[in-house]
Amino acid sequence: MTGLTQAVMEDCKVCVALVMILVAVDVVGSGVHIPTTLEGPFEPVTWSFDPMLRRGSDDLPMDHPRLKKNVTSNFPEQIALAISSPTAMWVSWVTGNAQIGLNVTPLDPSTVASEVWYGMESGKYSMKRTGVSMIYSQLYPFEGLLNYTSGIIHHVKIDGLKPGTKYYYKCGDSSIPEMSEEHVFKTLPLPGTNNRIAVIGDLGLTSNSTTTIDHLIQNDPSMVLMVGDLTYANQYRTTGWKGAPCFSCAFPDAPIRETFQPRWDGWGRFMEPLTSRVPMMVVEGNHEIEPQAAEITFKSYQTRFAVPSEESGSNSNFYYSFDAGGVHFIMLGAYVNYNTTGAQYAWLEADLQKIDRRVTPWLVASWHPPWYNSYSSHYQEFECMRLQMEALLYRYGVDIVFSGHVHAYERMNRVYNYTMDPRGPVYITVGDGGNIEKVDVDHADDPGKCPSAGDNMPEYGGVCHLNFTSGPAKGKFCWDRQPEWSAYRESSFGHGILEVVNSTYALWTWHRNQDKYKENSHGDQIYIVRQPQYCSASLKIIA
Ligand SMILES: [Fe+2]
C-alpha cells in the first residue's frame, strides 16, 4: 500500500463518521430542512420561465459609466486577481490606449513597467514584485473591417501570502509615476474553514449582467469561478454600434465572425470593482474563440488572463488546476483536443493522480458546455467530449462539475453514463449570467422541441449524438418527460454560491436575479455531501 493510498483510506474513515453526524445535525437542528444529496435521487422538478420577466436585455453602451475609460493613458485600469497557488496570486491590469481602425500601431510593452507593491498594512508595502507585459492585436484582412490593438496588459505574480489574510496592494509603474489607488484582497482560507465560491457563466455585459454581478458582490464570495463566455464581444461588427442577440441573423453578410474588441476593455472596467478584490478563475467558452487573420483564435482570452497552467504542470492556458480552501479545481478545455490520446487527457490523468484528498477533500471540475443538459439548446452537443473523459473523472471521484453554455439553470441527480449512480458527480449548469443572447426556455422533452440531428453542432470536435440504450427513453434521442437524471431546472438569470462547510458538506445555493430585491430569497438549494466510502474506485487507481 502506498502512502497516498493510506491517506485516502484515512480520509474515507473520518469522512464517513462526519457524514453521519452532520446528517443528524442538519435534519434535527435547523428547523428549515435543506435537502442533501444523500436523499437523492430526486424526482425531477421544472420551474418554467416567469412570463413577468424579460427574456433578455440589450448590452450596456460603451459610454456607460461602468464601461468607459475614466483614467489617464498610463494609469492602471481593468485590475483583476487570479489564484496562482494557495500562497501566490496573479495581479493583472491594463495601461495605455487601445486603438481601433483600418491601420493600428501596436504599443511597445517594454515602455511601461509592471510592478506590484503589497503588504499586510494599509499604506505600508513591505514587498514588491515585477512581472511581464504584452499586447495583442485582432486583425481582419477584409475590406471595410477595422483592426484592433490592445493596451499594454500586465501580469505580476505576488507570493509569500498567508491563508485567510488581508493584503493591501498597488500596481503600476513607479518610475512614471503611475501607481494605482490602494486595493485590498483576502487570501482564501485554510482547508476546513468556510469558503464561499461564486459560480457564474455566460455573463456578457447587459443590464441583466449588471444585476447578476451586483447580486454576486452582495453575497461576498472569496473567489469567483467563471465558466466561460465572458464578454460577448463577438455579437458585434468591428465598427461597434449595436450588438445583436444573434450575430448571423443580424449580419448575414459578415465575411467572418467579427468582434468589437473594445467590449473586452469595457468588460474589464465593469468587472474591476469585483476582480480587484476577489480572484476570478476563468475557463474558455465558445464566445472566446474569436477567429481572426492567419487562423488565430482565442487571442484576447489568452493574453488578458493569467491562469496557473505552468503552476499545475499544464503546457496550455486552456486547461489547468489549482487548490483553493480545501478544493482542488480542474478547469478543462472543450475547444481543444480532449481525446484520450491527447495532451489534455494525459495532463488530466497526471493531475488527478497527484491530488492529496487530505489537503483538498473536494474535487470540483469545470468546463464550458455541459454534458448533462435537458434543454433544447446545446442538447447533446458535447457528447464526444463526455465519451472521451467521463470515465476518468468518475474513477477519481469528482464531486461537482460546473458548466455554462446553456442560458438557464439545471442541477442533475448524481449520474454516470446517463445512469443514476451515487458515485457520480453532481453536474450543475449555470450559464445564466445575463448575456445578450437571452435566457433559454425550451426543454428537449417539450412537445415539438426535440432538436433535429443538424441542430447543436459543436464549435469544436465531432458530433456523437446518441439514442438512449435503456430506461424510459430507450431507443430515442429525446425523453418525453424531464429525464430522471435532471433533478431541478429553471429558466432564469442568476449565479450560484458554493459554500464549502467542511470536508464532506458544501451548501449550494442558486441565487436568481429577481431574488436580489427580496430578503432571504433564493432559488434551488441543497447540501452536496461527499461520500468518501465510495473512494474504492479511486483507491484502485492510486494503489
Ligand atoms: Fe457558450
From TrEMBL:
Requisite cofactors: Zn(2+); Fe cation
What is the protein's species of origin? Escallonia herrerae
Q: Which UniProt keywords apply?
A: Glycoprotein, Hydrolase, Signal, Zinc
Question: Which Pfam family name is an example for this entry?
Answer: Metallophos
**Locate the Purple acid phosphatase C-terminal domain: which residues?**
477-515
Question: Residue limits of the Purple acid phosphatase N-terminal domain?
Answer: 76-187
Query: What protein name is recorded for this chain?
Result: Purple acid phosphatase
Catalytic reaction equation(s): a phosphate monoester + H2O = an alcohol + phosphate
Name of the top EC class for this enzyme: hydrolase
Identify its protein family: Belongs to the metallophosphoesterase superfamily. Purple acid phosphatase family.
User: Which positions fall inside the Calcineurin-like phosphoesterase domain?
Assistant: 196-409
- Cite the GO molecular-function annotations of the record: acid phosphatase activity; metal ion binding
- Gene3D superfamilies, from UniProt? 3.60.21.10, Purple acid phosphatase-like, N-terminal (2.60.40.380)
> EC number(s) of the enzyme?
3.1.3.2
